[in-house]
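Q&A log
Question type: sequence-to-structure
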Amino acid sequence: MSPTPSPARPPSARTSFAHALSGLLDVLLPADCAGCGTERTQLCPACRHTLATARPGPTLLPWAHAAAPYTDPVRQLLLVHKERGALRLAGPLGEVLGRAVRSALGARAGAAPLLLVPMPSARAAVRARGHDPTLRLAGAAARSLRRAGLDARAAPLLRHARPVADQTGLNAAERRRNLHGALTVLPRARRGLAGRQPVLVDDLVTTGASLAEAARALADAGLPARAAATVAATAVRPEG
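Response status: OK
Response body:
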């Protein structure tokens, strides 16, 4: 999930420069594996294998599927991509997210063109990080689905309608109350989207409160999302 942080001050020139330098070094120099720390490779064979063999399935929300538990190395890969701007990880993480999309849709995966709708990031968070990680993952997932023969595109349709409190420490009921009515659909959302099947996507699901609020906002705009997908989940749906 992508909780909305409290309004933050715009990043300093030093912060912006640091993000730009980090991205340049990420391209020019070999880095240690973001998942396990293996030297001189940003994604080692073992961590790549973990992503490739992840088995998507339902979460606490039956209509929201996640590819993997939120444990290392997947946890570290998501954090490094989001907070340290390791942009080359978007490709392999997007592949995993694409598989979660297919799992969530099941037989409906090829029934209509897909529209991947990323959970929105707060503007302050995007400025501080220098990129929008969830939008980047949605785009990578759409590309992976197209390579698999599905008609898919990503579009940032949602935005925050009001500030919300930091969700750290809140239980599921408190998160639902905190997020109720917090999201809305951009006015341009309906343009060129006729016939597409919306699927909500995010990097992580915990209680599902954010995805449920996003589904409400889309439904109120006449764009009901019948499925959601994430790379990871902190808890899986109990069996039985």
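Response note: Strands lie at 57-58, 64-69, 114-118, 152-154, 158-160, 183-185, 197-205, 228-233.
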